[in-house]
Amino acid sequence: MYINVVQGSAGVSQAIVLNSTKDFNGIRNLTCSGTITVSTGLATPTLTSQTMNATTLNFNSTTLQLRGAAITASASELNALSGVVAGSAGNSKALVLGSVGSISGINALSAASVSTTGDITCAGVINALLAYGNQANITTVGSLTELGMNSTPVNEFLSITGSGLDFLDGSYTRMLIFSGSNATHVQFQIEVSNGSSGTSSNAIWIGNYSNMTSDLGSITPSRVCSSNDYCSKSSPGIVRISSRQTGWIHYFC
What we know:
By secondary structure, the chain is mainly β. Among the domains are: 141-210, no CATH class; 212-253, no CATH class. It is 4% helix and 19% strand. The chain has helices spanning 75-79, 128-131; strands at residues 65-66, 69-70, 147-149, 158-160, 168-169, 172-179, 187-193, 204-208, 214-216, 238-243, 247-252. The strands form 4 sheets. A 4-stranded antiparallel sheet has the order 5-6-7-8, with no helix packed on it. A 3-stranded mixed sheet has the order 9-10-11, with no helix packed on it. It is rod-shaped. The termini are far apart.
């Protein structure tokens, strides 16, 4: 067993003899049922391995550290980084911004609030206001060239198109409503029929939602009608078109 032994080199059916620097190599398989300890007395202890071609490599340690920091992520969490393309979103994958800080491919995004110092560009339709009427207050809006809700302005500055599903009042869509500041406020509204323009009875409706007077005219006109004159959708009355110079002209509706 000790004949023809080469110090520091493993041989078949030969004894293990370290060389002058206490090194040894050439062992094919080595099994340890206890602990392998790399000396902590070295400034930079090293454990080196060449390419591992095993199908499965198991680390069953309680804590795995990288440069002194414990890795607490699970295998499934680490797998979220596998196959990630910077700047492009993938299903069940982590999001990594591209070189210019952008990302694309997100199907749906939900947020409690959105803030930006740049532009928001939408190729489709922004329907949040139709779906959620109780949006948080917008206190300031800069100058707008035009505005479209559920539509794209073509020959107008303001364009509103109903969906036929939201804010319905019978066969009408409530397009616009104004409310006073009182706790029991007066409401004025504009409604448009959801029917075809080919039917003459499909009309628009403009007036008060409550049983109150509808005045159309100049500022502080001379009143000649009684205070119980009104025009509302629920109880038709009188529309009064007034002029400061000529007084009231009555039209029944």
